[in-house]
Specification:
Blueprint: E1 10-15, E2 20-23, E3 26-28, H1 35-46, E4 50-55, E5 66-70, H2 74-84, E6 89-92, E7 99-101, E8 121-123, H3 127-133, E9 140-147, H4 151-162, E10 166-171, E11 181-182, E12 184-188, E13 191-194, E14 198-199, H5 200-216
Parallel strand pairs: 1-4, 1-6, 4-5, 6-9, 9-10
Antiparallel strand pairs: 2-3, 7-8, 10-12, 11-14, 12-13
Bound molecules: cytidine-5'-monophosphate.
Cytidine-5'-monophosphate (C5P) is lined by residues 14, 74, 92-94, 96, 124-128, 143-145, 158.
Length: 218
């Protein structure tokens, strides 16, 4: 049992960016590689959990023993998360686009002389906040917060605002996105743990250890 502390648990993980279509050939995206989320899914499966990994567009291999659902946009990701419930814990690592193009153009938008086509935006649903507010929410809802300044203060506010139990905060002012290492702070209701710089695999294993301990407290 001790080396499979998540045996019998269902862990839901989101990872990667989202792509928000503008027209058949263009989209809005961001620099998330999906590496940290995939590492968390892998660590959860290695700890014995059943794992559902909802992945945006990334070029990563599916970790062993993980059920992967590929999505493109934030709204598809929101639907896939809802469909994966119930879960014992959710770790929302995806870098969900905050905005999408308000209107999808079925035909490729053309250059028009010197006139720029307008690109009105609409706000995407907050998948983490929506999940945390559901009556059937996972017992433990963990968010990530990528910040470029005042990392811990912003992330503490985010934990409360979004209704997450824990936030893993990281400073992305360097080359974290796409890189192999991560320096994070684990923010819970009762305080902050500052972790040393670790590989994304080690951040994942350490987080999964904490999740196992938390879920064992029932
Ligand atoms: O507000 P911010 O995007 O920094 O919050 C990051 C956290 O919220 C991450 O856990 C991310 O997966 C989640 N999130 C989400 N849906 C959004 C935006 C962020 O689930 N639309």
């Amino acid at each position: 049992v001790q080396h499979r502390p998540l045996f019998g648990r269902h862990i839901l993980v989101t990872a990667g960016p989202t792509h928000e279509p503008i027209d058949p050939v263009r989209y809005i995206a961001n620099r998330s590689s999906g590496k940290q989320g995939f590492a968390i899914a892998e660590a959860a499966a290695a700890a014995g959990a059943r794992v559902t990994l909802v992945a945006g567009p990334v070029t990563l291999a599916t970790p062993p023993g993980v059920d992967r659902i590929d999505v493109e946009s934030a709204r598809e990701m929101a639907d896939a998360v809802a469909a994966a419930l119930p879960a014992d814990a959710a770790v929302m690592v995806a870098a969900v686009a905050d905005w999408r193009a308000r209107d999808y153009a079925a035909d490729k938008i053309k250059k028009d002389g010197g006139q720029l086509a307008p690109l009105p935006l609409a706000e995407n649903p907050d998948i983490l906040a929506t999940l945390a507010a559901r009556p059937d929410r996972p017992r433990l809802v963990v968010g990530f917060a990528a910040e470029t300044s005042d990392v811990v203060a912003h992330a503490m506010a985010k934990r409360v605002r979004k209704g997450a139990d824990w936030i893993v905060a990281n400073d992305v002012s360097g080359d974290v996105m796409g890189g192999a290492d991560n320096t994070v702070h684990l923010i819970r209701a009762d305080g902050v743990e500052n972790w040393p710089t670790l590989s994304k695999a080690d951040v994942a294993r350490r987080l999964i250890e904490h999740i196992g301990e938390e879920l064992a407290n029932d």
